[in-house]
Fold this protein.
Amino acid sequence: DVKVTQSSRYLVKRTGEKVFLECVQDMDHENMFWYRQDPGLGLRLIYFSYDVKMKEKGDIPEGYSVSREKKERFSLILESASTNQTSMYLCASMRLTNYEQYFGPGTRLTVT
Amino acid sequence: GDSVTQMEGPVTLSEEAFLTINCTYTATGYPSLFWYVQYPGEGLQLLLKATKADDKGSNKGFEATYRKETTSFHLEKGSVQVSDSAVYFCALRIMNYGGSQGNLIFGKGTKLSVKP
């Protein structure tokens, strides 16, 4: 079975802190994604990566950056956390042969 | 641009009731369509998919048929169980080339609660 893991299930940070969310997949997938999930808004794509060191902006990249130094790992960085970044963050990976995305369990981030 | 619209919830049903969650889409060409499910406290998992018109995806008693004429992909189940309580997301795969060819566009999700 494909496994996508995220470094934390719950995280509480203060405004202005730099926050790192880590995602690791174990199936050698090419593409990886970061979404945020908010009530009434569904899933919105923040950034995605289709190869090591490659990254592209999604629909809501402002206030975020990403890093993909190894194929299995995709990190989301909040340079200076703000309260409006309080949300559920979901990571996913995908193999191009079937275009099915596999999701991690999510990180619920609270910024106070 | 491409988009997905699904019925708003929450939907509350009694056990063994019939379920329909409507999903319609707007897209260039003929996208692949998906239903994902999110159980409480978990990430999303693929429930079923269809890649071309008239295809029927099915899994765990759920079904959805890709209707090109009505640009729809409604989710149905004949008899729901308490364990089906979850949030259901309809999604389409963007049909383009390059790095974003696998990207999905999601609907806003429909929360289903099934009472015993």
